[in-house]
Structure prediction request, 265 residues.
Amino acid sequence: MLTDWNKIDKFAKEWLQEARSKIIASFESTLTITTKSDANDLVTNMDEEIENFFVTNIRNQFPSHEILGEESIGHEIEQLDGVVWIIDPIDGTMNFVHQKRNFFISIGIYEDGVGQLGYLYDVVHNELYYGKKGEGVHCNEVKIPPIKDVPIHEAIVGISATWLIENKDTNKGEALIELVKDVRGTRSYGSAALEFSYVATGRLDAYISMRLAPWDFAGGKIIIEELGGIVTDLDGKALNLLEKSPVLVTSSGLHEQIFKSYIKK
Ligand code: 2AM
Ligand code: CA
Ligand code: CA
Ligand code: CA
Prediction:
């Protein structure tokens, strides 16, 4: 049977709005905050509640679909056959806890490994970026133009100072420091989904992260690629949607410049 993407899109958008209402309502109550891999890796009751909300709805409406979610589900999945929802219920939990802004809901929906629907939801601004394979990207009702190229010296790059200093997971540290010296400016927002949406809209020209999980990049990758941009690891290779990876998000021209002049493949 052919997958009804319009139906999936309609439900996804409905659930995103409902999830937003729950998150906004939670601002009035006290959060339960715990830590995961280390003292700065936070998770709250709302991360779990929002993920569970999507899981329950998807299970009811689309029982054949698989789900991979940051907090609790699908971490054992080894292949991407069929329809798979990859969900980050709150991307930027530290911002959610400390700032009550600069966090997103991020969802990518894949079929047999091919990205079909991507959602990056700026909950506080009520701005939903959504991309549908072959049909472009919108922010709410407004269509977003393709990503423009800029020269390196005019580029604003999203990159975390902490990652750049630690340089734990990559041998690309020196190259990235040279790049940072040459670009117009750097920014760090603490939410991968926000930074993907900023590259999509030209607020950033590139985003670099040393280690993201599939739920951090699944939605953004669909949106960026639909706008003609490129999402790879720091060797220029395609991302594996079931593995953690360094990530580079750029226009196609900037991707070429970065590999030609900075990172040697
Ligand atoms: P999260 O808020 O959903 O955990 C900046 O921290 C960005 O990196 C966020 O998008 C965050 O997603 C993601 N990230 C990935 N792994 C992380 C980790 N171990 N600790 C904190 N943030 C992580
Ligand atoms: Ca997390
Ligand atoms: Ca995340
Ligand atoms: Ca998260």
The chain is about 35% helix and 25% strand. Residues 156 and 205 are 5 Å apart (CA to CA). The helical segments are 5-26, 45-61, 93-98, 161-166, 173-182, 192-201, 214-226, 252-261.
